[in-house]
Amino acid sequence: MNFRLFVRSTIMVMSLLALMAIVASGQVKPGRDPKQPIDEEYTQKIREYTTEPFFNSPLTDYLPASKTVPTPKAVLGDVAGAPGKLPYSAEVYRYLRMLEKASPRVKVFSIGTTEEGREMIAVAVTSEANLAKLEENRARLAKLADPRTIKLDDAEAEKLVTASVPVYYITGTIHSPETGAPTALMELAYRLAVDESPYIKAIRDGVITLITPIVEVDGRDRQVDIYNWHLAHPKENWPPLLYWGHYVAHDNNRDAMGMTLKLTQNVLKTFTGWKAQVLHDLHESVAYLYDNTVGDGPYNAWIDPILADEWQMLGWNNVSEMTKFGMPGVFTHGTFDTWSPGYLMFIAAMHNGISRLYETFGNAGADTLERTLSPQEYARTWYRQNPPLPKARWSQRNNNNYEQTGLLTALSYFSANSRVFLRNFYLKGKRSIEKPKTEGPAAYVFPADDARPGAQAELLRLLQLQGCEVSRATAPFTVTVSAKKKTGRPTAAEGSGETQAGVQRRNEPTTETRQFPAGTYLVRMDQPYSRIADALLDYQYWSPNDPQKNVYDDTGWTFGELYNVQVVRVTDVKVLAAPMQKVSGEVRAPGGIKGNGQTFMINHNADNALMTLRYRLKDASIEATESMLNINGQKFNRGSFIVRNVPAAELERVASELGLQVRAVDELPASSKTHPVRAARIAMLHTWLSTQDEGWWRLAFDQLQIPYSYISTQEVAKDDNLNAKYDVILFAPVGRGSPQAIISGLPMWGNPLPWKTTELTPNIGKLDSTDDIRPGLGWSGLANLQNFVRRGGLLVSVMDTANLAVTFGFTPGVSIAPPQRLKSTGSVLRSKFVDPNSPIAYGYGDNLSVYCFDGPIFNLSNMAGGRGGRRRTGEDRDRPTGRGTPDDPDTPQARPVAEAPEEPKAEVWQAVPLTDEQRRNGIYIIPPEARPRVVLRYADAKDLLVSGLLDGGAEIAQHPAVIDVPVEKGHVVLFSNNPLWRGETQGSYFLVFNAILNFDHLNAGRKLDEK
Ligand SMILES: [Zn+2]
Question: What is the DSSP string of 366-413?
């Protein structure tokens, strides 16, 4: 062998070895560097607070010492995870900034603020060399993230992969009662900055670890308040954490589609801004470490299959490494379907990264407790060969050990395989860009002639917020689209056999050409973040026969449908050649005044900005038209605004800001009937049982700048003249609130549970406060609410609060049928307007997609009291046993044949007309003017499902969805759908707004029954 050959083969062997080190990850042995001293005192405390040696690992059973860098003890006064220590966000940040000051390997970035103005941060920990070249590295990652910048050149990408350091983003404590992550992450940052062991050094050199120690900062500070209250009152019960974030509790981890919360926006900006490869979110509700990313089926249908593979690689490596450490209860798979893209971690899945989520085991505070698991939790299963113990003493330190050990093994594996993951990152981006040519579609098209330009612009802004590019056609263009189906999709029952409708569907043409006008918006799919647009705008189908029976969250979300905006899925790649320009700023609907005249008219198109306008122009006099008008060729829907007493300049300014088109006209047709649209005084009513679902209502109202008072059931209980303060009371869904629970509140035994601002609890009691959260609405509250309606108020009630109104007799003639088979698990269902003259229907077309979670199923009757149920009419009653064929009448023998009188008939959403028998003594007959008025009903069974899971849909098909019930001078409006949900249902907001704006004229356009 000559020298050259020797060198070459040596190099080959060396690179082979290097390759082996990469492929066979975790080959760097975990454990401390014996040359580096340890912090003896800190290490001793770790041992003391860990309840069993096997609840720790060689990665976290010691703390390396540093002469210059402070340990978490500097702020905590004890070690991370110590009993009784739960730091506020300010303390956590103070420590991380001390770390930044003391170590050249740490840098803290401010990433935005919360709704209540608290700061959110991200801390980068990596080698000095990596930290010095953050920007160069980011520039390389940016090219991999958007392969268009390198013309999809794989060779160029490979060079970038070799030169780049990946970013692994860890987020802690989004769920406030899951309290362990901040201290675990403080210590993790210290270890990554200080430890000189080969294991940690390899991570530091190979990865940029980015840490947001607290995602829900507002909730964290409240949770620490509660914990401190508990420490100060050791023998007493403590109040549950009623408010986490400013708006929502647990649902803060369901916002990655709607992007309405600051925390979601800030994490998304950080993830995409850093061009990170992983988003790893920490939770604490399963013993002892459950990596739920691998989860269970069904998987989200829009992820790149590469991601499913990455989940497996990372998840099983975690299990493998920690199992080798002898730590019990580490597993992946388990209960969790990976369908909904609403979870925070899914920001990564939908933006070409890797989403990950740990559930470790927390004690909701820093007490050390004896914890007993259920047999299901400690059972050995195929995916959990070393399950958690049935019973164990458990400490926050144990939790911190598991969190850190899991993360360190993950970082080690990720660092060793960084090229694989960077290559995948590039490939996922490239495949997103190639979408039009592969699976499609080529683009989503938002026609310029949409009836709701405001809603259209809002949906497009959401896509921009998600990182999508939006383009606008500069000229008309024609493409092939799939033909509109004239018949609905098959129902489950219809699906098996070939039906007439099925044959008809097959024979319909499947495509047609369609021209879109100039000004039409397009979201092209040949862009790196096409995946999120596709996932949000496409339709979802969850089979009723899916083996997954424990559906984890909502199953449908199609945003075009829920926003009530036209969205056309175009697979014809010709669409990409249409003349268009990329929109540079935010998409805005055009607004302002057009025409000449003394009267200002605004067409009612159910754009939410109309509601903002009413409250912005507080002193203007606004009237609504009760019929459709045509003025100088311009069409105005029912409910259109006539605006007076406002200077043209002011109206022009507000209308352009809000994207509303105002028409100045000379005069109105003399015959047109109108009524005033007052800026009603609104109260948002909440219980002290749960505040989350009403939080989504508050959020929508705040975003649209609609003022309201925020009151609790306890205030209603005390106030017998609610009409003096309010015109409208909105009782949003409580979530799990039975009518009895809303009345009773929490059990009254034990100590009072205050929710108040005090020196000990400075962060709670700001949104609302009480000395004791236990008392509920009570009977007095119920009576006050009822009197409020009788005297002319409007009560809007939804799902479980509608159940309260029905159960306690607010709404004679309405009953609720218990579901037998119905399953509509957060699905999108079609509904139809049955009374377009009702002010609640103003601005809408003839149908609307709504969010429905199992009803309630409303029935109507013209009889009050126990006779409220729905009579089965002749048509749906089976004939009795007797002579003849199934269609024949029975014939009693030995007497003349008697002709049966015709049975009264009614549609499912209507009350069955009264019979003469019932009218003879009409004690229970509801007078026509007091009868419930159905505004919106669910569609027929075959058209009902829009997106998601629907089983047994016939049970709710055609039943009322929105009912307006007159009660003396006032009204109760009942909702079966939830019109304001997670910032996703903008299209149905106006059902509520219409009710509010017309609260004192809800009977407009009403046709009464004759008898
Ligand atoms: Zn959680």
Answer: S--EEEE--HHHH--BTTBSSPPPSEEEE-HHHHHHHHHHHHHHHHHH
